[in-house]
Design a protein that fits this description.
seven-stranded parallel β-sheet; UDP N-Acetylglucosamine Acyltransferase, domain 1; mainly beta
């Protein structure tokens, strides 16, 4: 069903009436958007994806099928979350207290994952809260992120480690020497200093 703002919600999706859904967003089959979540304009939420209570997605965010984004995650504009990727929220997960009583919401404190503008999280990757993935960074499929990721970094493995840099097009950058890099797709040049990359 598509409403007057161009929002499309599949009949089998579950969008809480307290959620805010931006113009042109699309929520596909079996997706669940919880109370007080915010989806920016143009977001696409794939089949079976989950967006937790109070999660904030910027504009043009794409969650692929079965991606799980737990509260209190914050995703910038243009973020891509690959199929079956998970953004966690519990540093010390347990179903029960030390006394064996089933835990309630009052027995733990949710911590979130923050994803910067334009960043991409590959299929089945896991971001273990609390971590921040920087702007335009790329987390490889299957990686497990346990530490903050700088802007434009390419990280792989378990635990994830930086193996290079990527540009806004997502392509690995080509080193030019003297700490400068160029994007083979766009020609944009970058400079590295103290383990950080910036556009020139």
């Amino acid at each position: 069903m598509t409403n007057q703002d161009g929002v499309t919600v599949a009949p089998t999706a579950d969008v809480d009436e307290r959620a805010k859904v931006g113009a042109g967003a699309r929520v596909w089959h079996l997706a669940q958007i919880r109370e007080d979540a915010t989806l920016g304009a143009g977001c696409t939420i794939g089949r079976g994806a989950y967006v937790g209570p109070g999660v904030i997605l910027g504009d043009n965010v794409k969650l692929q099928n079965y991606a799980l984004v737990y509260e209190p995650a914050r995703l910038g504009d243009g973020v891509f979350i690959g199929p079956a990727a998970v953004l966690t929220n519990d540093e010390y997960p347990r179903a029960v207290t030390p006394e064996g009583r089933l835990k309630s919401g009052d027995d733990w404190t949710a911590v979130g994952v923050t994803i910067g503008e334009g960043a991409a999280i590959g299929a089945r990757a896991v971001c273990v809260a609390p971590v921040t993935v920087g702007r335009w960074a790329l987390v490889a499929a299957g990686a497990v992120v346990t530490k903050d990721v700088p802007d434009f970094a390419l990280v792989v493995g378990v635990p994830a480690r930086r193996v290079g840099w990527v540009g806004r097009a997502g392509r690995p950058l080509t080193p030019e020497g003297d700490g400068t890099f160029v994007c083979p797709a766009t020609g944009t040049r970058y400079a590295e200093s103290d383990g950080r990359l910036s556009e020139l």
